[in-house]
Specification:
single chain, about 130 residues, mainly alpha, 6 helices
Length: about 130
């Protein structure tokens, strides 16, 4: 590679041209960033899209501890076992599960409901209307 001798005017024009190219690249990059910030980033890790998704909303409801506790109480009330609610919760704690953990409570509710259903089938007990 050989260096081409340039006079001051040529160096100035080349420097201006280089700075204009660099400014244009920065503008294009900034425009891309602005577009990505305003809209879908396009990746599966886009937090804004995740928060808008139905799955996120369903998970939020699924893991809501107050809702889970009210569903457990409703199930116990429907089956006339509300007086035994604390016994069930104490047993759940003795198994090492937290009663504030929504997932454990949902599993426990499902197990208890299945047991009650099996007992009703075994003894031919009719549900009330």
């Amino acid at each position: 590679m050989t260096l081409v001798p340039m006079n001051v005017e040529q160096l100035r024009r080349q420097a201006i041209k280089n700075s204009q190219l660099k400014e244009e690249q920065q503008k294009n990059y900034q425009a891309k960033l602005d577009q990505m910030s305003k809209h879908n980033v396009g990746g599966y890790l886009d937090i804004r899209q995740i928060k808008k998704s139905n799955q996120f909303k369903e998970q939020k409801v699924y893991f809501d501890t107050e809702k889970v506790n009210s569903e457990f109480e409703d199930m116990m009330t429907y089956n006339k076992l509300i007086s035994k609610k604390q016994n069930f919760l104490d047993h759940l704690k003795s198994l090492g599960h937290s009663t504030t953990d929504a997932h454990s409570m949902r599993l426990w509710t499902r197990i208890v409901d299945e047991i009650i259903g099996d007992v009703k089938l075994a003894y031919d007990i009719k549900d009330r209307d």
